[in-house]
Each structure stands twice: as C-alpha cells, then as structure tokens.
Amino acid sequence: MYEHLSECCVFLPDSVGLFDGVSLQVAQLCETTIDNGLEKIFLFIDGEVVAKAFDRWILMRVGATNLIASHAIRIALEASIFDVAAFAPEEFVWRSADQAPPAPIESVLPPKIVELNAKTRV
The whole model's pTM is what? Predict the structure, then answer.
C-alpha cells in the first residue's frame, strides 16, 4: 500500500476527448499502463495513478511510496493537462486520500461544480 495518497478533480469542458491526449503523455513517463476505457491506471517505479474521465471532469488518484514521488507524479499529470487542454483549469486542488477508498465524485469536486451538476440533473 502506498504511504502518500491524494485525489484531485479537474473540470474541463471536453474532458473525455482530452483524456486520451493526457493519457498518451503520461504513458510516456510511466512503466506500465492499464487501459480500462475511461479509466486508466499508470504504474510508476514509486507510485501509481488511477484516472477516470467523466462528462466534464477528470478524477485523478495518486498513490506513492514517498513525498517526492507523489509530487513528481502530480506535476506530470498537471503538466500533461496544461499541454493538451485549450483552456487550462483555474486550479488543481489536491486533497489527501489517507488510505481511504476512493471518495464519491461529489466530495472531490469543488462546490460550484456540485451545485451545477445538481441543477442539470433531471
């Protein structure tokens, strides 16, 4: 099990389309990639990433053996998104996942996106 766990959710207008481009860039940096369609797992020497694309956001969960690897993997993800996305996200907010199972998507999303999603559900 990884000692350093964190999650981030990034709102992007065309996240599903961008996810492939981001995945290709991250895949060049990792040891192995497991592709499950809209969920991909990237295995690094000192950590891993589980990333999922949803309608308008990408949820990323990073697990690493040490703090340096954790930050390096997160920076690689952020740089790939900035490189591929025409409109960069306003911010990346990483929260600690502390050995817990993946959080429900609403708990990781910024409040304004949760409100928007609640309004658009019928």
Answer: 0.76
